[in-house]
């Protein structure tokens, strides 16, 4: 898979909904009902982060849910690439980008949404062929104002900003022409997951799915 093909694939995924839930799940028993709630609420693209021992099992469970498009977040190495593909992930997300990681994803035909936090990082990825990127950590790296500034010199790049984004500021990002979607965990808060409040999560997802966007 070429970087251009990877970016075409991740762009199509990012266009499916204005928000990609970023999920940190510790109990595999929550995987199925959580995925069903998010998909029912209009958020089919799910990023399961590799931050818990249960992450791979959670991906495998979610991949069985009709309508769920399951990817892996916090993918850092070629070993991670192999592991998440084995668990059924159809895309990967990384907080940054290294040559080893980019090459592993390209060789494995796993679409990658690579992270960038500066103009130089974004340009390096663009030079390699990645036109769809993750802007992380969004709020710390300058927020919506920083992405607005990048839009003029780098109009070729579409972004999915993640990090510090919630219901109070998601609309600020989605109003930008170079933002395709945002990533965030607020649609699946830990307390609602622990309580098994799938109706509450579905309601949060439905609100997020209806956020307007211009990018």
Architecture overview:
With 215 residues, the protein is an alpha/beta fold. It has one domain (3-209): TIM Barrel. Helices cover 42% and strands 15% of the residues. It has helices spanning 3-14, 31-40, 55-62, 78-86, 99-108, 119-128, 143-151, 170-174, 190-195, 198-209, and strands at 19-23, 45-49, 69-73, 92-93, 112-113, 115-116, 132-135, 158-161, 182-184. Strands 3-2-1-9 form a 4-stranded parallel sheet. Strands 6-7-8 form a 3-stranded parallel sheet. Helix 2 packs across helix 3. The chain starts with a helix and ends in a 6-residue tail after the last helix. The mean pLDDT is 97.
Give the overall shape. Answer: globular
CATH topology-level name: TIM Barrel
| Broad CATH class | Alpha Beta
The CATH architecture assignment turns out to be Alpha-Beta Barrel
Strand order of the largest sheet: 3-2-1-9
CATH superfamily: Aldolase class I
Strand content: 5-15%
N-to-C series of helices and strands: HEHEHEHEHEEHEHEHEHH
Runs in which pLDDT lies below 50 for 5 or more consecutive residues are none
Q: Helical proportion?
A: 40-55%
Number of strands: 9
Average pLDDT level: 97
Largest sheet: 4 strands, parallel
Strand pairing plus helix content: what structural class? alpha/beta
| Continuous helix count | 10
Roughly how many Å is the radius of gyration? 16 Å
End-to-end Cα distance, whole Å, is 25 Å
- Taken together, the total number of domains comes to 1
Structure at a glance:
The protein is α/β, with parallel strands linked by helices. The chain has ten helices and nine strands.
């Amino acid at each position: 898979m070429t970087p251009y093909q990877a970016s075409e694939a991740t762009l199509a995924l990012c266009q499916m909904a204005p928000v990609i839930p970023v999920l940190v799940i510790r109990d595999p028993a929550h995987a199925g009902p959580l995925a069903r709630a998010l998909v029912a609420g209009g958020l089919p693209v799910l990023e399961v982060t590799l931050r818990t021992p249960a992450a791979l099992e959670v991906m495998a469970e979610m991949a069985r849910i009709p309508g769920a498009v399951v990817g892996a977040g916090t993918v850092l190495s070629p070993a991670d690439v192999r592991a998440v593909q084995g668990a059924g992930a159809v895309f990967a997300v990384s907080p940054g980008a290294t040559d080893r990681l980019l090459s592993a994803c390209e060789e494995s035909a796993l679409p990658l949404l690579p992270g960038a936090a500066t103009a130089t990082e974004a340009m390096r990825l663009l030079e390699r062929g990645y036109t769809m990127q993750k802007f992380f950590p969004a709020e710390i790296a300058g927020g919506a104002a920083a992405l607005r500034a990048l839009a003029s010199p780098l109009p070729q790049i579409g972004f999915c900003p993640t990090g510090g984004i919630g219901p109070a500021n998601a609309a600020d990002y989605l109003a930008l022409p170079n933002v395709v979607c945002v990533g965030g965990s607020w649609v699946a808060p830990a307390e609602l997951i622990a309580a098994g409040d799938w109706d509450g999560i579905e309601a949060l997802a439905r609100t997020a799915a209806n956020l307007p966007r211009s990018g």
